[in-house]
Amino acid sequence: MSPPASQAVFVLGGARSGKSRFAESLVSDTGLERHYVATGQAWDDEMRERIAKHRADRGDLWQTHEEPIELVEQLAAIDAEGRAVLVDCLTLWVTNLMMAERDMAAEFAALTAFLPTARSRLVLVSNEVGLGIVPENRMAREFRDHAGRLHQMVAAASAEVYFIAAGLPLKMKG
């Protein structure tokens, strides 16, 4: 059985591929009220600086919501017609879920079940981590496997899927 129809857009790519910039342009181009759901956590000064730079680069036209774990609940809380919501990024969310020892299958199922019910235009960003070598340690392999499963589920539940490389979007679905 295929998932219900969704208006979600899924944007994948490697680190520094241009995926976030592309996703931000997709949201900006809608003309809708802009919301940004950040899943990253500032564990050190370098990450705090990155977060501050990203927030400054986006400017005042975005409402930022920081939610490292309860992503579906945050999306439900801000979901409304006339809004576009950017989630950046799902791989940081996977890391946070792993560190919190959450039920990955249940969390992923909840997210993909939410997508077709959303009234907002959703754009979800994630890092493609399955194109490189097999990680040398168990946790890294589990992370890669969780991310790969989540990506398949989100791609199946999304109306459009893009892969970004060297700043160039390749439309894979929709």
From TrEMBL:
Record keyword Nucleotide-binding present: yes
Keywords of the record: ATP-binding, Cobalamin biosynthesis, GTP-binding, Kinase, Nucleotide-binding, Nucleotidyltransferase, Transferase
EC number(s) from the headed UniProt entry: 2.7.1.156, 2.7.7.62
InterPro entries cross-referenced by the UniProt entry: CobU/CobP, P-loop_NTPase
Pfam families per record: CobU (PF02283)
Function: Catalyzes ATP-dependent phosphorylation of adenosylcobinamide and addition of GMP to adenosylcobinamide phosphate.
Similarity annotation: Belongs to the CobU/CobP family.
Protein name, entry field: Bifunctional adenosylcobalamin biosynthesis protein
